[in-house]
Amino acid sequence: MSDGLFDVSGKSALVTGGSRGIGLMIARGLVQAGARVIVSSRKAAEVDATAQELAKLGDCEAIPGDISTPEGAQALATAVQERFPALDILVNNAGVVWGAPLEEFPSSGWDKVQHTNVEGVFHLTVALLGALRAAADAEDPARVINIGSIDGLRTPLLENYSYSASKAAVHMLTRHLAKRLASEHITVNAIAPGPFESKMMAWALDDPGRREAIEHGVPLGRIGRPDDVAGLTLMLASRAGAYLTGTVIPLDGGITGCG
Fold it and tell me: Which residues neighbour 210 within 8 Å (Cβ) at sequence distance 6 or greater?
């Protein structure tokens, strides 16, 4: 009964923000599981280097792109569909963060985060609907996996106002898209990570004292590992997750569930 339950071999996938951090963890997991993966990010040299490294493990290539504008999202979608006319898995991971004291928080810090984290997810998903529909099947739906954050589920300690608001928006957008696309056999779910190794978290995790304090605040007592997010992604992307849509799954070692 469990034969092939988590199998994604041969499936086509796009991972945005796939050159580092959680996006890289997800892309590596998909490549190792036999998926055909495109990684994308704004910095061409960085994403090309990542794709070359992941290609040693399986099928991976890079398409640079900037989803922070509708035109950029459409350009990326067009390039992806030239490679994959049918897209099985879309992982919307690309994101930015901004922090500043409340009364000093700049409009640029608000706009940049919203354009990438919310509008980018929306515009890219819409631009790729043709490829997702081409892959969709009642028994094996196409999958959209949005990367949110526990900062969109709870009030953060940091003054990252636009980031937390953007991730809460991603969670609601996930539910809204899921309802709209369910009849077309496209599932839409979100992962809401807690602390993981990433550029966004480097300021804290690279400091031993801060790292220990963060780990102490996690009920399971550790920072997230690559297998944690890769494993959940494989579940959502495979037959194991075919009956799941409109969910926001905290991946945080119990921070939100046990708090």
Answer: 204
Please list the pLDDT of the chain residue by residue as tens digits (259 residues). Answer: 467 999 999 999 999 999 999 999 999 999 999 999 999 999 999 999 999 999 999 999 999 999 999 999 999 999 999 999 999 999 999 999 999 999 999 999 999 999 999 999 999 999 999 999 999 999 999 999 999 999 999 998 889 999 999 999 999 999 999 999 999 999 999 999 999 987 776 666 777 878 888 888 899 999 999 999 999 999 999 999 999 999 999 999 999 999 7
Give the CATH number, domain containing residue 34.
3.40.50.720
192 Ramachandran zone, left/alpha/beta (phi>0; psi -120 to 50):
beta
Q: What total of structural domains would you count in the chain?
A: 1
Candidate list 163, 168, 214, 229, residue with the active-site label:
163
Q: Do the domain assignments include residue 2?
A: no
Radius of gyration of the chain (CA): 17
Confirm whether 259 is domain-assigned: no
Give Cβ neighbours of residue 88 (< 8 Å, ≥ 6 apart). 8, 11, 12, 13, 35, 135, 142, 143, 237
Whether 243 is catalytic is no
User: Does residue 144 form part of some domain?
Assistant: yes
Does any domain span residue 127?
yes
